[in-house]
Amino acid sequence: MTTYIPLAQAIQNQKGNIIFEVVSIGKLNGGTGNNGDWTNKVATIKDNSAEFKITLWNTDINEIDNDKKFFKLENPFWTHNEKYGVQLTLGKFYKLHDATKEDLIPRQDGFAEAETKTAELKAPQSDEQQKANLTKAESILGDHLKKYDDKIKVTWALEQVAIDRLIMLDGKVPDPAKVGMYIKLLNDA
Questions:
Q1: Who is most buried in 54, 84, 85, 94, counting CB within 10 A?
Q2: Could you tell me if 129 and 142 are in contact, meaning their C-beta atoms sit under 8 angstroms apart?
Q3: d(Cα 162, Cα 167) in Å, to the nearest integer?
Q4: Pick from 88, 98, 32, 89: which is nearest to 66 by CA?
């Protein structure tokens, strides 16, 4: 049995079988290279996790360039280069099967939850809702700033203690690296 993974995961891993929907197919390009004449089209594909471009070369163009909208792709050829990043082509050993929208891998819970929250934030809100959201955001920000401010105060106090103790021990202003090491000792204690 063939295992399929979400497109986002396949892009990240640069390997894997995918089920996708064809969003659009670009114009036909062509030219002549070291291996003779070539043609290609770039198709935009997507599933419930990501959208990506696949390059269709020469005779492979006819495989996806038709009225079918959903496909299962096994053994595609994933590559990565510095100039273009991750790329996907059908490759030599691919298998392409028809699919339906129902075959697409469902969106993971985290994605669905984030999408719902985003839709809620984009929805029109009354003045009261906007004020409540602003108050909540200010409260969250205030908590973060307080924690950050407290951390700065503690760090500054540790630095002062470290400098004072090192001056007492050595009788001179200490090297900053020595202060850092002493602070680490104080933190660990």
A1: 54
A2: no
A3: 9
A4: 98
Written as six digits, the tokens of 181 are 């090491």
Contact 43, 54 (CB under 8 A): yes
- Which ranges of 21-126 would DSSP assign to H, the alpha helix? 61-64, 109-122
Helix-helix angle 127-170:176-188, to 10 degrees? 110
Residue 66 DSSP code:
S
Q: Which amino acid is at 81?
A: N
Q: Is 186 exposed, middle or buried (0-12, 13-18, 19+ CB in 10 A)?
A: middle
Residue 175, H or E segment: none
- Please measure the distance between the N-terminal and C-terminal CA atoms of the chain and give it in whole angstroms: 56
Domain boundaries defined on the chain: 7-119, 127-188
CATH architecture of 7-119: Beta Barrel (2.40)
Q: How far is the C-alpha of 182 from the C-alpha of 179, rounded, in Å? A: 5
Distance CA 140, CA 151 (A): 17
